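User: I'm putting together a small comparison set for a docking exercise, and I want a reference complex before I start. The sequence is below, and the ligand is protoporphyrin IX containing FE. Could you produce the 3D structure with the ligand included, as structure tokens?
Assistant: Of course. I'll restate your input first, then give the structure tokens for the complex.
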Amino acid sequence: MELEPSSLCFLIFTLTTAAVFFLLCHLTATRRHRNPWCTCEVCEMYLTAGWSNHHANICDWYSDLLRRSPTKTVHIHVLGNTITANPDNVEYMLKTRFENFPKGKPFSSILSDFLGHGIFNVDGDLWRFQRKMASLELDGFSIRSFAFETVSFEIEDRLLPLLLSASETETRVLDLQDVFKRFSFDCICKFSFGLDPMCLQLSLPLSEFALSFDLASQLSAERAMEVSPSVWKIKRLLNLGSEKKLRDAIAMIDVLAQEVINQKRRIGYSSVHKDLLSRFMRTVKDDKYLRDIIVSFLLAGRDSVASALTSFFWLIAKHPQVASEICEEANRVIGNRQVKSFEQLRELHYLNAAVYESMRLYPPVQFDSKFCQKDDIFPDGTLIKSGTRVTYHPYAMGRMEEIWGPDCLEFRPGRWLKEGKFCPENPFKYPIFQAGLRVCLGKEMALMEVKTVALSLLRRFRVELAGNVAGLRFSPGLTATISGGLPTKIREISMGAPC
Ligand code: HEM
């Protein structure tokens, strides 16, 4: 259809007027919780990105602000966002006053195009239903052995051969972040849907599904960084720029999620099928809802595990003595055999400590936000007005002397051990998997996956950094992703030899 120039002008005028009207209405409505015109030093730093002159990442800037705050809590006026690194406040919002700090509408509207009504994006009954179904599945003994078998197969048959081939050429540089994303995508698809996308074959391009997934996650996170939601809402209305890209990425995710559902219907989802989606499909008949469940579980299980593994290997490459201690412990406890079960992994206390320590410094989910429903007061005395976005910040918490002592910036797995045994910390001081009523449901599975990969690789290979040596820079996204990946060179070592 061709438009007359006069009709086109009229259309542009109408859309622009609507956009301005919408923007003004929105700004007025949100001014109660935020002050978009604030000119204080911190807000100016945020708006001009002045923080980037002193810090590599925005999370480093927030850590610095929080460290200097006497209460370990700060408020960014232009965002209407109270950010805390105070464990008492974290416990208060995630447990004591859980009902008053839901995900809330503003958060779910930011993510609703991507996540729909999936578990990450809902409160109330929708959340309770998915939580109950998923916990029934994830807590069982048989699912643990299924998960262990899935991960072991992926390591033995795909990951180790791939690294072996990379180690054969001295000069070959391998992006471990890309490898771990492919690895965890295969694992979570097999585990959650009983389907194998076979991404861990570098000869294949990363599937369009996985690429669209990365893009949708990044663009959705960028929405949250806008000073006013009206900005992305108008762009979405006009289907412009990043919002157009997001719409296209989501369209691709929708097609492929539907394909997953169709395939499951063909294969069957009766009680003999152990995967998570089969369990949901026995109860849920609505394809849109199933799509949302699929997307949330992919987000939960893929990026977080890949992120944990990537920063673990970055730290290990810089601390080879930790790799040696992990291998020594494994040789002492299980000999030079492979780990045989979920339970056997628990005997490896130093390995567990090294994984916990790595996520303390580099949490896969660097921060997590809720919205305050009714006016409240944090234990540190901070007044929280209804409608305020409240964020707890695990990345900053891992860098607090008050929590971890003067050596908080050092990678020191020993801090988790007492007489050689792993001692967990209070989860509100270490909310890497969140804590309280919405604690991560895949925690045990994630730890098993990270530890099994870490041990299998460290016993066979030495990983050397071929870039990103000085420090890590993160890309915006819902989960921490290293900008530029993790370029490495892989060297084979013989099993049982000191690594
Ligand atoms: C190292 C890996 C992982 C980390 C650090 C992690 C961390 C988290 C965090 C911080 C949350 C809270 C997010 C929010 O409410 O916004 C969460 C929730 C969740 N995680 Fe994980 N996760 C990991 C792996 C996994 C895996 C492998 C699965 C599934 C197999 C999983 C399943 C879930 C689910 C279902 C929720 C939602 C819980 C709820 O809202 O009630 N996670 N996780």
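Residues 369 and 391 are 4 Å apart (CA to CA). The first strand starts at residue 73 and ends at 76.
User: Thanks, that's exactly what I needed.
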